[in-house]
Amino acid sequence: MSGLTPDHRVRVPLSAQVWDRVTFLHYRAGADDLDRLLPDGLEPDTCDGSAWVSFTPLIMREVRPTVLPPVPGWSTFVELNIRTYVRDHAGRDGLWFFALDCPRHVMVWGLRPLGLPYRHRPGSFRVEETRPDSESVHYSLGRGVARRDLDVQVGAAIEDQSRLDVFLTGRWNAYTTRFGRLCRVPAAHEPWRLHQADVDGSLLSVPLESRLPLLDEPPLVHFSPGVHARLGAPRLA
Fold first, then answer.
1. How far apart are CA 226 and CA 230, in angstroms?
2. 106 lies in a domain?
3. What is the rounded distance in angstroms from the CA atom of residue 50 to the CA atom of residue 203?
4. pLDDT at position 214, please?
5. What is the model's pLDDT at position 132?
6. Number of domains comprising the chain
7. Phi and psi (nearest 5°) for 19?
8. Whose CA, among 65, 162, 184, 186, lies 20 to 30 Å from 132?
């Protein structure tokens, strides 16, 4: 279940990766309209009556199968995840991904057969120290007229995470469908360290372009320095 720490152990991880400098743009969404976009076996998970969709740019580092070391250079790249919060018929909660934009062709070709909606999109990032105790992060995704950028100025740490903060970040399962069957991929990592952040850039127009049932209000923003993640094998939900 959602929480600060995972409710399970990933004893035999298939993949290890660092989710570095993660920015969460959380948008409230219409639960009934969102429900129509989900596969059989899943329904929107809500907090205080609201469903949510998050647009999450991040820097992926040290991406590899656990039996291999990371490939220098190749294993670091920017990615954009578009996800929502769901619950299966057994009451277990997790994430459903509408899209995962990634510049690595091998990741796209290799993970699509697992039911993950990877799309190829070029991307880059830049990290700058703005003060001794703060930094800014710049993400860029796409090329030409389709390019979208986001500038993030990292703010103060969130010392006491609210129930909604934990609901939106502390998720330990991702759902996929394979051959018409609903599957669950377990994940584990250390607790998220969350910060406030100010954001600006054309990437903020992507939610408006997505045609997802988002409410007309600004996003709730979180930033995290990152976590070391371990992903398990898919299993039937």
1. 13
2. yes
3. 24
4. 97
5. 76
6. 1
7. -95, 100
8. 162
